[in-house]
Amino acid sequence: ARSGSGRGDELGFTSPNKFRFVSLGQGQGPIALQMLEAGSSRGYWVLLQNCHLLISWLAQLEKALNKMKTPHKDFRLWLTTEPSNQFPLGILQRSLKVVTEPPDGMKLNMKSTMSKVDQELLDECPHPSFRPLIYVLTFLHAVLQERRKYGKIGWNVCYDFNESDFVISRKLMSLYLSKAWYDKDEVLPWGSLKYLIGDAMYGGRVSDNMDRRVLTTYLNEYMGDFLFDKNLKFYFSQEGFEYVLPDDNTYEVHTYMKYINEYPLTNSPAVFGLHPNAEIGYFMTHTKDMWSALISLQPRTSEAGGGTSREEHIATVADDILSKVPIVKPDIGSFDLPEVRARLSEKNKGKPPTPCQVVLLQEIERWNELVKRMASSLILLKKALVGEIGMSDSLDEIGSALFNGYLPQFWAKLAPATEKKLGSWMIHFEKRYTQYMQWINNGEPSVIWLSGLHIPESYLTALIQTTCRSKGWPLDKSTMYTCVTQYGTIDDIPSASFNLTDGCYVTGLYLEGAGWDKERNQLKRQDPKVLIVELPILQVVPIESHKLKLQNTFRTPVYTTSARRNAAGVGLVFEADLATDFHPSLWTLQGVALVLNTSD
């Protein structure tokens, strides 16, 4: 918008004479159409800002442009918008597009931020620590933005950290340091600065607790008296390049720019505290997105000649899946709930079901809904493929997903969250059914496969409830802790340890962001090119909260999938305790987490 208006001023198109603009929003559509009509007839420049806020109105704009036959030769229409996949294609095809890309890499990011800082700003605070702390804040700002590049291992939620966060943090820093200077305080107000910058300014955007832990760790790593230790030089990072705090006593803008210009154009993820493997994950994610886009562009009709047609392939896949869907009756599903309840009541000798049995009943009820939907939709799809019924939108979506090897969204809505493709999801599907059958026939499992449950956190809550009932503990003052065993598989567990009095064993957990040292039974740094490893069997132990005292452990979030937790807070199952000899900040910045499901 600024560049457009600046060019308009040079050519004589100044506001309000020949340059009109409006920021789109509710009720602004008619005003924009009036400006468009006046501009096209009188030769104005018209700027419509924030088009993404009124996507539904853009169809009217497209119609107005199509009706425009002989606009004035000086008329120009400018549109600004954030990326949107709903933007009308007709407008895009007839437009010249200018894209503003954010700076990529620490060097360009810091240069962009420092270019908005002049010597007057550096001199606004008399405290000698203010100038070097501006450089620290610039480095922190760049790190927080660049970490978004690495997806979920960087931030669970992609936050819009921007220039306003930097500006307000700089002003607060100036205010508090000026007060410390005039009050002749010998100690800098680090606590206040960390809170205001990490919790109020940048932290005000952070909605996820684990992301907030990352942000707090950065503040603790970058702000403290150690910055000015004469005996031990401070490094932001020494990975690939020595990122240091300038030690020039002048602390002027040109000095800072000189240091920044010496930075490499590209940098390793290790600069942000991540493992170098994070870059592999970054490239793999983009490659998968590219292949998904290419697959979606495949022709929907097959060429004449040999080979299996699209419809035949879909029918074959549908038959194969239908043969693997265990269903008693179309209106019941896989399990007859009244019959299962009767069997559980018989085992309990007429007593009410235990908390874990309640979880089982809830799980198989959800399972029945899934298999009924799968079976009915596959039967209808087969009929639609041979022309017996019409092909609805939902059936067409299922057919396309089966053809491309993806899990249909129509089924995924009733299934646990997953990133698996159709083939590996069907293996997971059959394994879930086996676990439910064994649970019904043999009683509560000593080793639970949590990823086979629709709502795994409900089972862990039931475990705590069961222990509280047997030991008379208050439920609101009870919790659980975990320890990783030496057992790699169920077969490794000795018979004497198999049936636990309290708690259970958990299998099928995968570790991201770190490796596992089986000999020392603790976290270790990732091996090169190994992005995910399977964790040995985990033991879950209910305990009274006041008795829990852990040392040398890292509180590790456990998520349903590698997508981790979204902006709505969905995805976190529980938090596990993993042994470590390193400071927790190492694993926090490396994005260490456990997941129940991999994409394979």
Which overall shape is indicated by the principal axes computed on the Cα atoms? flat
Low-confidence stretches: none
Distance between the termini: 46 Å
Give Rg in angstroms: 30 Å
List keywords for this structure.
single chain; 600 residues; alpha/beta; 5-stranded mixed β-sheet; 4-stranded mixed β-sheet
Fold topology:
Blueprint: H1 2-10, E1 19-23, H2 29-42, E2 45-49, H3 58-67, E3 76-79, H4 89-93, H5 106-114, H6 119-122, H7 130-146, H8 163-182, H9 190-201, H10 209-222, E4 235-237, E5 243-244, H11 253-261, H12 277-296, H13 310-324, H14 337-347, H15 355-385, H16 393-404, H17 409-412, H18 422-442, E6 447-449, H19 456-471, E7 478-484, H20 495-498, E8 504-507, E9 510-512, E10 515-517, E11 522-524, E12 532-534, E13 538-544, E14 553-559, E15 572-579, H21 584-589, E16 593-595
Parallel strand pairs: 1-2, 2-3, 6-8, 14-16
Antiparallel strand pairs: 4-5, 7-13, 8-13, 9-12, 9-16, 10-11, 14-15
Helix pairs in contact: 5-7, 5-11, 7-8, 8-9, 9-10, 13-15, 13-16, 14-15, 15-16, 15-19
